[in-house]
Amino acid sequence: MVTEKRYEVGATVDEAAQAMFNRQLATYRKITRENLMYHREVYDILRGILIAEAPVPFRFLDVACGDASASAAMLQGTAIAHYHGIDLSALSLEIAMETLRSLPCPVELHCRDFAEALGNWAARVDIVWIGMSLHHLQSAGKRRLMEDARSALGEPGIFLIWEPTYLEGEGRVERANGTLQDRLVKEMRLAGISTMEAGNAFLPTFMEDYNKRFAKLPFNDKDLHRPLAEHDDIEDAFAWKEERTVSFNLTLQYDKVLFMLEPNEITRPLARQRVMIFDYPDGRFAIKYKGRSLPYKTFDKLQQVDQAAIVENKRLGPILAMIAEQQKQMDMSRSNKARRRRGQRTSLFKVG
């Protein structure tokens, strides 16, 4: 039941920001509906945490709640006693009003900038949840919001954050390299450089000018790099890693290949346990449990019949040829989520 909808507007809400939020609402709802950013999985995890760890009953503060559709579904059947939602978009809160009517508790919606609202928050809550919104604040604003969230929480209280993180190749160094390469190409074009020799001769001048314009002194110039320790494993650090659950039959799947663990005293107890897959850049592959490599066999679902097999098996030649033709019509590509394999000379994931 919705018992109150509180709008705290006026000087705290910028009209241009409201308009931008409202324009983006349709895009946001499509993203959540299509699960493009794994909202369903995240909110399943959140629900599990609330059921296992939240006080009974609990008061829930949903920071930057939007239309609250994901939260409303997640909170069904939990011990929620009071729901508070904060969002800058009045249109989103109008939708949230209807979405949250099924909750068996009072609901209060606050139309306000979430950082400012938390800075003036008075009601005590047990859970503070902010999803995909903290990154809008600068570092000082993030620290201040975390302090305000801590002040709003009772004892015991839980502060939960969901934020995106950079994948490999998306960090600051990679972005800086992209900027540098783009700027360098344009500077060379402006300087009329068209040969490798002229480009190499131009680099020292470019670097000096670039550093004068953009370089900043570090707060601390101490070199904090450390030498490798004996336990540091660089090969494992640079491998593509994914977790899998071992089936009761001691099998698991990865990149359209079925892996069958060889049954022994180590692997038999691993049914329904999580193991780590290591997919190395050079094509090697390992399955490990608590750092220990496990023996396995494979069955590749994308095995193809080649011409050599047709020639060698004269009796089965016509059948193999028919299978080969059928395979040409099938999608024999690997998973788009797995690592790319350019440059791997040997790999059990090669097709053909």
Automatic annotation (TrEMBL):
Alphabetized SUPFAM superfamilies for the sequence: S-adenosyl-L-methionine-dependent methyltransferases
Span list, region Disordered: 328-352
Positions of the Methyltransferase domain: 61-154
Name the UniProt record assigns to this protein: Methyltransferase domain-containing protein
Domain of life: Bacteria
Organism of derivation: Labrys miyagiensis
UniProt-listed InterPro entries: Methyltransf_25, SAM-dependent_MTases_sf
Transmembrane segments: none
